[in-house]
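haha ok so turns out i had the wrong file open the whole time. this is the CORRECT one, sorry everyone. sequence first:
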Amino acid sequence: MIDVKPAALILLNMGGPDSLDAVEPFLYNLFSDRELIQLPAGALLQKPFAKLISHFRAKKVVENYRTIGGKSPLLEWTQKQAAGIAARLEETYPYVVMRYWHPFADDVLREIKHAGIDKAVVLSMYPHYTGATTGSSINDFKRAAAKIHPGLDYQLIEDWYDWPAYLDALASRVHEGLEQFHDMIQNEVQILFSAHALPQKFIDRGDPYRQHVMATVQGVMERVGSFDWHVAFQSRSGPVQWMEPGTEEMIQKLGGHGHRALLMVPVSFVSDHIETLEEIDIEYRDLAAECGFLHFHRAPSLNDNADFLAALAALVRERTA
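then structure:
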């Protein structure tokens, strides 16, 4: 009998505040990361400016979190995803590392080291690679591993935007979204895939994020069938040039063309959090109504759906074979 040594499955994600009091320090951690946001005053003033911006942004953001229950559900969903994937693998134990709020990499790596585990698979929960999110999370993990658990032998999975089983799962969510419309109007539905925006300078420097998003959407629509579809980018804020088109502008454009049925599909997010529950479900629903849409639905998030968890378990097996 072959002795299989236990391994850790470590999911990397952005994190989110676990209470309303945590919103401001969470924002501070986020704005302090120069791999994600390079404030114009330079590295020396990044943290003082992050302190100032997070203080003034917190008031509005607190209210947004209050509308979805007073905290982010991202950690809970990521923990469920880690457990579900690990359960489909042999001798694998689930862990979650968040970038901007607990649990941080240092603490999780101490836990793994204390458990006597010296082998791991590190899976980014961002399907589409960008240095601003995946890159920052992986660099943060590498720094912590070198410091806390230098003996850990780990493999990185940095993107999986075109993994067939992932595309199958996302296509299934789109079909579920379409089923929310009456049969009489299904062929009129405009499908709007909404991904998180990046500053355009990331794309200009060669970041593959846009290409990855488009490859995912095209793969999904090959599975969904013949519907009108569009791609836009949400959560744009601040005085920088962002990726275009913006989701708000696309909703306005489609409404202006006389369309009245809209299905929104969150494409760069693999679980519910503030961008789906508040931005899409509340802000964009209201905007769509203002633009003349009579029918508005969102495709369900992947969350802990069995087909999605099976897809990522198969991905881990494939990439670590």
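The radius of gyration is 20 Å.
again sry for the mixup
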